[in-house]
């Protein structure tokens, strides 16, 4: 996609979000055919529609996460000095709120503690899922790199 088309796509995302909420799959489904008619037709022909949709959803999520002041993000200078030290350490400008099924900007999370609670619980659950998966990969790594005949034979069987 050309840069000029990227800007147009981002504007379209914000337009759709104003009507559908910040729900990336809904926005992607709403926009795909109009924004990329030839690509969608080709993907459908080649059986790659699901992969195309996944990529478009990923881009929509990126756009929603990277809000900027031009598109109406709340003014971060309005955040109370009490909360500023916590906010400045955060890595994102918005977080996913599962109950709302959308990304919510930090000032709005501060204004709505129930949404903040939902966002932090969602992030913590995802973090635990990542740590559990890392533990499973650690166990696999130990088994794969074991210095015994069974591990060596199993590795050779996989690569054959």
Cα-atom radius of gyration: 21 Å
Strand order of the largest sheet: 1-2
Number of helices: 8
Which structural category fits the helices and strands?
mainly alpha
Helix content: 55-70%
Q: What is the H/E string?
A: HHHHHEEHHH
Arithmetic mean of pLDDT: 84
Number of strands: 2
- What is the terminal separation in angstroms? 40 Å
* Largest sheet geometry: 2 strands, antiparallel
The tally of domains stands at: 2
Strand content: 5-15%
* Unreliable residue stretches: 68-74
Shape descriptor reads: flat
Notes on the structure:
The protein is flat. The chain has a two-stranded antiparallel ribbon with strand order 1-2. It has helices at 3-20, 24-35, 37-46, 49-65, 84-88, 106-111, 113-144, 149-159; strands at residues 94-97, 102-105. The chain has 160 residues and is mainly α. Helices cover 69% and strands 5% of the residues.
Question: Which key features would you list for this structure?
Answer:
single chain, 160 residues, mainly alpha, 2 domains, two-stranded antiparallel sheet, 8 helices, 2 strands, 5% strand, flat
Which helices and strands appear, and what pairs or packs with what?
Layout: H1 3-20, H2 24-35, H3 37-46, H4 49-65, H5 84-88, E1 94-97, E2 102-105, H6 106-111, H7 113-144, H8 149-159
Antiparallel strand pairs: 1-2
Helix pairs in contact: 1-2, 2-3, 2-4, 3-4
């Amino acid at each position: 996609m050309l840069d000029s088309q990227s800007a147009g796509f981002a504007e379209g995302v914000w337009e759709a979000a104003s009507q559908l909420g910040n729900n990336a799959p809904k926005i992607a489904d709403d926009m795909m055919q109009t924004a990329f008619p030839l690509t969608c037709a080709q993907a459908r022909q080649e059986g790659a529609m699901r992969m195309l949709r996944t990529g478009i959803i990923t881009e929509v999520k990126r756009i929603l996460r990277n809000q900027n002041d031009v598109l109406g993000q709340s003014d971060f200078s309005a955040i109370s000095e009490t909360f500023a030290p916590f906010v400045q350490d955060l890595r994102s400008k918005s977080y996913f709120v599962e109950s709302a099924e959308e990304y919510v900007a930090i000032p709005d999370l501060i204004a709505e503690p129930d949404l903040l609670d939902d966002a932090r619980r969602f992030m913590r659950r995802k973090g635990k899922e990542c740590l559990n998966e890392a533990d499973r990969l650690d166990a696999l790594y130990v088994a794969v790199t074991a210095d015994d005949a069974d591990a060596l034979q199993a590795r050779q069987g996989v690569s054959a």
